[in-house]
Design a protein that fits this description.
With 382 residues, the protein is mostly helical. It is 68% helix and 0% strand. It has helices at 8-20, 26-46, 51-55, 63-73, 85-104, 108-125, 132-144, 155-168, 179-219, 222-226, 229-233, 243-250, 253-269, 279-296, 300-310, 316-333, 359-372, 375-381.
């Protein structure tokens, strides 16, 4: 029985169910939408003072040169439609608004297309100023067009919930249309599910290919094999935003060598650990690696893009658990109101004002008080 093989028909049915049964990783797609929308919005705001030198008519790479290059490469950009400074300002404002709406998840089917158009146009206009982080954001913006990234944690999802809550108390309306309309609606739902799942699989495959190719490329280098690659990286003037910190880290030669070997191992092994629990510690170590790159090499955009891409491999149950974890931690760290010493209020004693006492107890208390008073007090009382 252990040698029984799964029939090909069962495998095809399982694959068809995986693609068409339900949309996968809806929370992960929303995290990618929020992450890349926020990242590109921050990028645009950071470069706002230098927008003319990078993308405008004041750039050394003039619009005429960009259009000449587009004729050879096939790229295009709406920034080169006019050489007027006012056109740049209008395009820049539209890019900021589009990134904000995409991050918030407002009309995501439309804003995802506009966001991909914005990223592509700005990327193509200043092609010689881009790096690996810009390339990854460009690819992810194109893949997210295929996904239903607005069904969770978005204004679209909130609008659907409000509409459903309002319709909850109303009598259910009969569904309009005949069998053909119902069949078309079912086909639309299936098509949306298939396209979303294919988009998420493309994102996962892209990240796996990125890590795998980077790891295999490092294996070919002698410096990575000898464990000295990070030592030379820490001494590159172009990637030393904190020279003192780089020098401090480089003094621990053993740790630097171990970090180099672990980098190669994690990148090569990443595509092979995705279907088990080993991926969680691997993702944590990759998070530490990207944070180190952001701080030591001064590449925050690239590191942030990679961290967001890694979030695609976390299951939906992880993101569903996050709000519960937040509320649990909030209850623990919530400060106690002032004046509340304990959970149970202090109870009034027999002699306390306003405490209920029986007549016999009141007489005994009066006799004790009279016996304890001095003689002068008794005469004065009389």
């Amino acid at each position: 029985m252990g040698n029984e093989q799964i029939p090909p028909t069962s495998r095809c049915d399982a694959l068809r169910e995986l693609l068409t049964g339900r949309p996968v990783s809806l929370y992960a797609a929303s995290v990618l939408r929020i992450g890349y929308g926020f990242l590109y919005l921050g990028f645009l705001l950071r470069e706002f003072p230098h927008r003319d030198e990078i993308w405008g008519p004041g750039s050394p790479w003039t619009p005429a040169l960009a259009r000449q290059l587009f004729g050879q490469t096939g790229w295009n950009s709406f920034l080169t439609l006019s050489d007027d400074r006012a056109w740049l300002e209008l395009c820049y404002a539209a890019a900021v608004v589009t990134s904000t709406l995409f991050m918030l998840g407002w009309r995501t089917r439309i804003t995802s297309v506009l966001f991909a158009l914005v990223v592509t146009s700005f990327h193509a206009r200043a092609i010689f100023m881009t790096d690996g982080g810009d390339n990854l954001i460009l690819l992810m913006s194109l893949y997210l067009v295929l996904t239903a990234c607005g069904r969770r944690w978005s204004l679209d999802a909130r609008r659907v919930r409000v509409k459903a809550a309002r319709a909850g108390g109303e009598p259910r309306k009969p569904v309009k249309g005949g069998p053909l309309v119902q069949e078309l609606r079912g086909a639309r739902h299936t098509l949306t599910t298939v396209v979303h799942n294919c988009g998420m699989f493309l994102i996962a495959a892209q990240v796996c290919f990125l890590y795998g190719s980077a790891g295999l490329y490092k294996v070919q280098g002698a410096s990575w094999g000898s464990g000295t690659a990070l030592h030379y990286v820490l001494h590159l003037e172009l990637f030393r935003p904190w020279p003192a910190l780089s020098q401090l880290v480089d003094e621990h030669t053993t740790l630097v060598a171990v970090a180099g070997y672990m980098t190669v191992l994690l990148q090569v092994a990443f595509p092979f650990v995705l279907f088990g629990r080993l991926k969680y510690p691997v993702l944590v170590m990759l998070l530490g690696m990207h944070l180190g790159i952001a701080v030591l090499m001064g590449l925050p955009l690239f590191s942030s893009a990679m961290i967001i891409a890694d979030a695609a491999f976390l299951p939906d149950r992880f993101y569903v658990f996050l709000p519960h974890l937040y509320r649990r931690l909030a209850r623990r760290v919530r400060p106690m109101p002032q004046g509340a010493v304990g959970a149970v209020p202090a109870q009034a004693g027999p002699g306390a004002p306003g405490s209920p006492t029986r007549p016999a107890e009141r007489k005994d208390a009066e006799r004790k008080d009279a016996a304890s008073e001095p003689a002068g007090d008794h005469s004065a009382a009389r």
